[in-house]
Each structure stands twice: as structure tokens, then as C-alpha cells.
Amino acid sequence: MSGAGADAERGALGERLVEAALLEGDFLLRSGRRSRYYLDKYRFETQPELLRALGDRLAAAAAAVEPEAARLAGPALGAVALAASAAMASGLPFIIVRGETKEYGTGRRIEGPFESGEVVCLVEDVVTSGGALAEAVAAVREAGLVVRHALCVVDREEGGADALARIGVRLHALYRASELLAVRAGTDNPRG
Question: Distance of CA 151 to CAs 23, 145, 184, 188, Å?
């Protein structure tokens, strides 16, 4: 789908995200910052229709920005459902990036088969400062994989894209937080 139809579909999905997952109040973020709003990833990642639509969009974005990708990568826990959905939509296998190496089982930080030197495209839910995603990039690179691009459902526009750019990773967001906040406010001006 292209043109007006794709724009309408994207807008409708954005409205569904706002309805399902945009909470207002006083929230402490992983970055340590406080925010008047919170995008609750579990409210959109646990809804089959939203997860399917997001997986389709992430798969299309991965094909567009990283056509050389041999697989997708999703940091645990938050992005695993998204990476799985995008893998099913794209046909690309995926790996899971643990927050830390476990002392039991295989003792691996990267779960799932892969070959050193493969190109992966990282998938994330919400990016704020980029710290968690930068940690995942480091782990993936330490395992011998190549990562140049990362996808996220929402970029909170609080420095994450710049932080990732400093380590050679370009962030591509399906939505910017300002867009979703504009939807909540009922405006067409994302900065208004």
C-alpha cells in the first residue's frame, strides 16, 4: 500500500496505540527522568491485533532500511514479542539479547542461532535516552554480529537517536512521541 492509503493506515494504527497505551500522570522512566506521560509497551505488545500490525510495519521497515539483514534482534524482555511478530511477517529469524549473561543453561547472552559476521536489525519498543538499546548493540557486536540500524515503535525524542548515532547505529521510529501526543490532543500539529 502506498500514498494516502498507507498514510491512513499508519494514522489509524497510531490512534490505536494512543488508545491502548498512552497513559498520563507522573511516571519515572528507565532513564531516571520523570515524565507526564508513559507509553506502556505491554498494553500494545499483548494485544494480538496491535502486535500483528506492528510486526508487519516493523518487517517492512527492516526490509527498507537494512536489506542485508540476516536476522532481527530483540532485547529481552520488552522487544521479544515485537521481534517475534516482525520475524513472522518478514520470514527473517530473530535472536534475543538478554540483559545479562545467565549463570545457568547455555550461559549465553544472545539466544538463538546465528553466524558471526551476520548483519542484524535491532527491534525495540520505546526509545527514550537510548541507553538500553546501546547496551543491546554492544552485546550483539561483542558476539561478532554487525548492527547499523535499529527500529522502534516509538521514539520519545529525548536523545535516543543521537546516542545511537554516536555508536554508529541509525534509529528508525514507526512513530515519534510528539505525533502520538498530538493524536491524544486531537491536533494535526505534532509540536503543538
Answer: 22, 17, 23, 24
What's the grid cell of residue 135?
A: 547496551
C-alpha cell at position 40? 506502556
The reply to whether omega before 77 is within 30° of 0 (cis) is yes
pLDDT, tens digit (0-9, with 9 covering 90-100), for 19-30 = 999 999 999 988
- Per residue in 137-150, pLDDT (tens digit) is 999 999 999 999 99
pTM of the model: 0.90
